[in-house]
Design brief:
The structure holds two protein chains of two kinds.
Chain A lengths: L12 H49 L5 E7 L5 E3 L9 E6 L5 E11 L4 E9 L4 E9 L9 H4 L1 H5 L4 E2 L14 E3 L9 E3 L5 H24 L1 H4 L7
Parallel strand pairs in A: 8-9
Antiparallel strand pairs in A: 1-2, 1-3, 3-4, 4-5, 5-6, 6-7
Chain B lengths: L1 H8 L7 H9 L12 H7 L3 H24 L9 H23 L1 H11 L6 H9 L6 H31 L1 E2 L2 E2 L9 H4 L1 H24 L1
Classes of the chains: A alpha+beta, B mainly alpha.
């Protein structure tokens, strides 16, 4: 390709580099400005759409709720009701039914998948001590293979009543949620994987396992904190 | 790749701007004739919807980068032209990424991994190098539109066949009856190669037939 563009030998080499530098830097600045403009212009809408998607997802992972309320997990391990996330601490969403009864908590969790970090939301019901719903918020898993974790009905059926039972002292999970092979599920705390999406489906099992072993005991022991009617703020 | 690019440079005396548009659709179709940008073609054409969205996003980046490269063509020194083109292309890919996120979270969820792949689509770089850097803005726009539409069409041809055979549906609407045994291989990477090969056979058949006259 270079043959078509012979380097001009007449001009001074330092002149040449100066021209190159000016061209690259000005294109760089122009492009950076363009990106910043678009980023600033779309940021508000993207944030709003993301929050909307997250709120919609809360209703998907906690069946039967009609109202939600945000709780913030403080550094001391206690939940506090908040209006908006502070951007640092973990936030969970408590769901309430029509009568204002506390149903369960939607928890956001993330972990390494096959392609990139997978962000999920799952619903935990402390009354029955089970995981009752699951939704993928963000994933870059291979289309047609890894993205089955969002669509495969057999896989999603795992999360209708996945056991996250605590031990008799209620301090830790008795049997941590673990992934198993497709067709290998024999205990209520096992997540049956997908053949053809082994890594992605195992990742989901592990993400929920890690997250629920921390969150389930915290939520279960503070169930009273969540037992407030969201309308009586 | 380089032999493909030179195909475009041996132009006949001053083609009209309609010619610049039409050539991308058929005679120099980026996928079926130039066989460019194979990475997204094979990866994203597993469903008709993905293929169409990816094609449109690519066409937009192609159009914008062609416009910018054509307007800056006398300003960019030859030695750093490739780096400059990549910078321009990457900028518009980032913009497309934000735009799609702002349009719909669900669409972005479906395409997420593919958007950044547009940067490495050699169709865009080759049009910048072989055409926009040597032609006026007007002609470059026509060239980008032609190539863009040609790319969208080609991706759609592949995506439709693969989704139909591999999933029994088109745009997520079931076409074949329940009893249809899906050809799983068609939505896997190998199916992309098979489908592409079949389309190339079709295209070359017509080309040879026309040449024989």
């Amino acid at each position: 390709m270079n043959a078509n563009h012979p380097v001009s030998s007449q001009t001074n080499p330092s002149e040449e580099s100066k021209k190159m530098l000016i061209a690259m830097v000005s294109i760089g600045i122009f492009c950076a400005l363009l990106i910043v403009l678009v980023y600033e212009g779309t940021k508000e809408r993207i944030d709003r759409l993301r929050t909307e998607a997250l709120e919609k997802a809360v209703f998907k992972v906690l069946p039967g709720i009609s109202n939600t309320r945000m709780f913030l997990l403080g550094a001391d391990g206690n939940f506090k009701p908040v209006e908006a996330p502070d951007g640092k601490s973990q936030v969970v969403y408590a769901g309430y039914d029509d009568a204002g009864e506390f149903i369960g908590v939607a928890i956001e969790a993330r972990g390494q998948g096959y392609a990139d970090v997978i962000r999920i939301l799952y619903g935990y019901d402390p009354h029955s001590q089970t995981i009752v719903g699951f939704y993928v918020l963000e994933s870059k898993e291979t289309p047609g293979l890894g993205d089955k974790i969002e669509k495969d009905e057999n896989f999603l059926a795992n999360f209708k009543a996945l056991s996250a039972k605590l031990d008799p002292e209620s301090t830790r999970i008795q049997n941590k949620v673990i992934p198993v092979k497709q067709g290998g599920k024999s205990n209520p705390w096992e997540v049956e994987g997908i053949t053809g999406a082994t890594i992605s489906s195992r990742a989901i099992g592990n993400i929920i396992g890690e997250s629920s072993s921390v969150m389930a005991p915290l939520i279960y022991n503070q169930i009273e904190t969540f037992n407030v009617n969201p309308d009586s703020k | 790749m380089s032999t493909r690019i030179t195909n475009n440079t041996d132009k006949k005396a001053e083609p009209s701007s309609t010619d610049e548009f039409i050539k991308g659709l058929w005679r120099e179709n980026p996928v079926f004739v130039q066989v460019l940008g194979m990475c997204p073609v094979l990866a994203v054409s597993n469903t008709a919807q993905n293929a169409l969205a990816m094609g449109l996003a690519t066409a937009f980046v192609l159009l914008m980068s062609n416009i910018l490269v054509a307007s800056l063509r006398n300003f960019i020194p030859k030695q750093v032209r490739i780096a400059s083109f990549i910078l321009i292309i990457a900028t518009f890919v980032t913009i497309v990424d934000y735009a799609i996120q702002a349009i719909s979270v669900d669409l972005h969820k479906n395409l997420g991994a593919f958007i950044s792949l547009i940067v490495v689509n050699c169709l865009i770089l080759s049009r910048a190098e072989a055409f926009a850097s040597k032609n006026t803005i007007g002609k470059s726009i026509m060239d980008a539109l032609g190539m863009g539409v040609g790319f969208v069409l080609a991706l759609f041809c592949l995506g439709a066949v693969r989704e139909l055979l591999g999933n029994g549906s088109l745009f997520d609407v079931a076409i074949f009856p329940e009893s249809f045994q899906e050809w799983i291989i068609m939505i896997l990477p190998a199916g992309g190669f098979f489908t592409l090969a079949l389309w190339l056979i079709v295209f070359n058949y017509f080309k040879v037939k026309k040449a024989k006259g």
